[in-house]
Design goal:
single chain, about 140 residues, alpha+beta, four-stranded antiparallel beta sheet, about 20% strand, globular
Length: about 140
């Protein structure tokens, strides 16, 4: 198993466009919106992948950095402490459970940060990239 990192930041109201967030929609692949189901990130073009990891600690480090990037814009800072989020990710990812955080930002914006298991036990999409063993990140 390996993990692909994804992120999206945009107008929170855009998330209401559920048609573009479902893989059976003709607009799904071209839409920048995050999917309704975490595993469906794998059905998006490979260009949407922010990074890929074979090592859980490297994946968790990426999550921490991505969360740090939005920290100053959080509408409700430290709602769930980062250390708790990271501990959860360390536990869940090796067991094949996706980790996705969604947070409201100032100005009505919304951020999604996700680490998606590949292969995915809940969404039967093929790996969006060809990988060689040992590839740590894109």
């Amino acid at each position: 198993m390996h993990w692909h990192a994804y992120q999206w930041t945009g107008a929170g109201a855009d998330r209401d466009n559920e048609a573009e967030r479902r893989p059976d929609s003709p607009d799904f692949r071209a839409s920048a919106l995050p999917p309704m189901r975490t595993g469906d990130w794998l059905a998006k073009p490979a260009s949407r992948i922010a990074a890929s990891f074979d090592d859980v600690e490297a994946a968790v480090d990426w999550l921490a950095a991505a969360y740090g990037d939005i920290g100053d814009a959080l509408l409700v800072p430290d709602r769930i402490p980062l250390e708790d989020r990271l501990a959860g990710a360390r536990d869940l990812l090796p067991r094949g459970v996706d980790v996705q955080w969604g947070e409201w930002l100032q100005g009505g914006r919304f951020a999604t940060i996700g680490m998606i298991c590949c292969p995915n036990r809940h969404a039967a999409h093929p790996c969006p990239i060809r990988r060689s063993a040992g590839v740590a990140a894109l």
